[in-house]
Amino acid sequence: MKRTPISFLSSALRVFDLSIGEMLWSRRTIFMALVVAGPVLIAAITRGVASLGPVMQVNGTRIAGATIFGLMIWVFYLRFTVPVLGVFYGTSLIADEVDDKTITYLFTRPVPRGAVLFGKYLAYLVCTIFVVLPSVVLVYLLVVPIGGTLAQSFVPLLTDLGLLALGLAVYGALFAFIGAEMKRPLLTGLMFVIGWEPAAMLFPGYLRRFTVAYYLQALVPHAMPQDSATSLIQAMFRQAPPIGASLAWLFVFWLGFLYLAARAVERREYVLEQ
Questions:
Q1: Domain ranges across the chain
Q2: Burial of 183 (0-12, 13-18, 19+ CB in 10 A)
Q3: How many CA atoms lie within 13 A of 233 on its CB side?
Q4: SS3 for 169-238, per residue?
């Protein structure tokens, strides 16, 4: 009897249900927990140091907790955690199935190939969001009360949470495409995050427009404190487009790379190495 194909959405949800448990208990999740634990530990140490003496100062200028929090969002989350997790998870969505020689079992079922990719991508998104964002809230609760109150920066916190979720979505879609299209996706992804994006952001001209970071950083106006040293760094990295244009391009990247990833999975013939 011929099996009736399942709809794309139902197939994706089934793959999601199957993948979310595997992803949460994988070695990559341990790596992710260690990555997000670093900023929380630094925030706890900062809070402890601040409780032992007067409010911290640099060159005689008081540093409020909200400023420290913004700096941590910029350095630890926006520039490191989000792209790195996107690389390690996004490139593995299909590549791990190929390496484990289980890709044929997924593709022989009566589900669209693109739905397999989309379901695994949803699992990645849920897994990373529910690990990364709580750590941001912990850092906020630990750091922002230093020299200030929590209510003063609650709205920026919501903006940061939405920004980081969007960053995880866009980077995940980009590296899902790389993982579906290339034979050595992890190496390519790391070269993009560690090599291409930082280099493109430093050079003047249009190269930075071909990075995700260029548009993400336009949504974090408070991420760098305004002093003589960090303002120079900010000037190099923060020549960004308007917020509306940044959001538009990020959504274009997100949907575009997700579509290309699904299309690559549909068309590519995966040959398992013996």
A1: 8-267
A2: exposed
A3: 12
A4: HHHHHHHHHHHHHCCCHHHHHHHHHHHHHHHHHHCCCCHHHHCCHHHHHHHCCCCCCCCHHHHHHHHHHC
Amino acid at 70: G
Name the residue type at position 124: Y
Rounded CA-CA distance 220/231 in Å is 14
DSSP secondary structure letters along 54-122: SPPEETTEE--HHHHHHHHIIIIIIIIIHHHHHHHHHTHHHHHHHHTT-HHHHHTSSS-HHHHHHHHHH
CA distances for 13 relative to 18, 117, 156, 203, angstroms: 9, 11, 33, 43
User: What pLDDT tens digit does each residue of the chain (274 aa) get?
Assistant: 445 557 878 888 888 888 888 888 877 788 888 889 999 999 999 888 877 765 555 544 566 777 788 888 888 998 899 999 999 999 988 887 777 677 767 677 777 888 888 999 999 999 999 999 999 999 999 888 876 666 666 778 888 999 999 999 999 999 999 998 888 888 999 999 988 888 888 877 788 888 998 899 888 865 454 444 444 444 554 566 888 999 999 999 999 999 999 998 888 776 655 5
DSSP 271: P
